[in-house]
Amino acid sequence: MPKCINDPTRNYNGTEPSPKGLGYCAHVEKVGTIRIGKDNNAWIVKMSSNKIKKWVIKSKEFTKQYGFVTSISMTDPRLKSWSVRKKQNLLKLCNLQDKFKEMGVTFLIYIWSDWQLTDDKTHLNQPRDDLDWYWDQPWEDIPEKLFNKPFILVPIKYDTIYKKYILDGKKNDEISLFHNLESHKKEKQNVIKLFSKLFKERFFWSGKHIDPINIKLI
Fold first, then answer.
1. Among 69, 126, 156, 207, which residue's CB has the most CB atoms within a 10 Å radius?
2. Cα separation of 70 and 87, whole Å?
3. Residue 188, C-beta contacts closer than 8 angstroms, at least 6 positions apart
4. Residue 74, pLDDT score
5. What is the pTM for the complete model shown?
6. Would you list the domain boundaries of the chain?
């Protein structure tokens, strides 16, 4: 039998669905450690009632990818930890489809699932950080036919481990929108005017194509 990677005095079978099946014994890990198991699910180390550490499934959504959606609801369970104000401002943003259609701008909402592990390929970042989301993923999923037309994409990061949406910024209070408005001057000015009216000082954009449109949701 092979030796455990984190404790060579112990053995494992290699058939265990938990991270032990990859050589990680729970008894030497810190409580709260999260790793991906042999079954590709996320597992967490917990202390049992008899003081024994064990692997327990944390989430079965780690390998689940999402993508484009048509709307976001206030009752979405992934918004449960958000303040009412943040929810309301996100909905205000996501309910602008008709406004943008009038401007000739395609408006997209994208649920951006995490994908990347740390250098230790079975150990997830604690806490999660931007490296856990593949930056080009939303861009790569945009239909090629849209790149010659003005568009705005609202990427909502989804932490599949803790099953919640997260935001950008030091205070986890802003969202960064993807776009191609630099080459569409008329639509660019209309978008700036609309966002300035709706979000006032909470809206910021340098006006450059390489920079995202930032909106604080507080």
1. 156
2. 16
3. 150, 181, 182, 207
4. 92
5. 0.85
6. 3-59, 67-216
